[in-house]
Amino acid sequence: MNTATRALFNDWAEVYDIQPNPLLLLEQRTLPPMMPPIEGLDVLDVGCGTGRWLKQMELLAPSSLTGTDASDAMLKKARATLAPTTALHLSDSTTLPVADASTDLILASFVLSYLADLDAFAGECVRILRVGGHLLLSDMHPTTAAQRHWIRCFYLEGKRIELPANPLTMTEIIAAFSRRGFQLLTLNEPAFAEPERHVFEQTNKLAEYDALRSVPAIYLMKFLKAAEGNESVTELANRTEGRADTSGKPASEVTPSFVDRRLRR
């Protein structure tokens, strides 16, 4: 992340936790069922921001919990609310300060669209994760974002501030991690529903809410780091999570999508 973009994220930290975002609410509702049991795991949250997921995972008794972010202002906000045992590091996502094969679960929530080098991040994930570990990715749905011309932005002191983002299709993302040996277990593409309605109502955008109820707003991907050799994905999933999660679409069903064009209005 360059200096100018980092400065924008530092500004965003001031209002990140107080400005309602229906995309984050939708993720908060739909991601937990895809998570493996957290108890006893070594967990890394890449791009942890102000620590919204770290706060929740602290309650689930992980063996260790680490967050990284490229914004020192975001990390300062996180540090003020997290337990002392949760480690925080100022770090770019392509050079993570984590030891080889030290992690059971990596979460990257609304991160990939800000990456300058997706392949480098995928390489870091395969380096850090143990065999049988999981990678959870989420972001704005690129097809809907392009069709609706969504822009990633926030508001500060009455000004609308746009955030630069790199366009990535889901096919590109899946291919990048598949090349590194990851297996896609689940792909979920949820739409807004009644739990998110109040955010649109607060901003006088109920018409937009009605139009979006039938289209995916975000994507959620769950990958497994498979072993080299003959152990199958199902065997690994059964061993590490208790059961294989096959509720989503396999990678072969994913079709190319429109270019991701940015976040909230």
UniProtKB/TrEMBL annotation:
Annotated GO biological process: methylation
InterPro entries: Methyltransf_11, SAM-dependent_MTases_sf
Keyword Transferase: yes
Coiled-coil stretches noted in the UniProt entry, renumbered to this chain: none
Keyword Acetylation listed: no
Occurrences of domain Methyltransferase type (ranges): 44-136
Any one Pfam family match given in the protein's UniProt record, by short name: Methyltransf_11
SUPFAM superfamilies, sorted: S-adenosyl-L-methionine-dependent methyltransferases
UniProt region (Disordered), positions on chain: 235-265
Record keywords: Methyltransferase, S-adenosyl-L-methionine, Transferase
Molecular function (Gene Ontology), one example: S-adenosylmethionine-dependent methyltransferase activity
Protein name (record): Methyltransferase type 11
Lineage: Bacteria, Pseudomonadati, Acidobacteriota, Terriglobia, Terriglobales
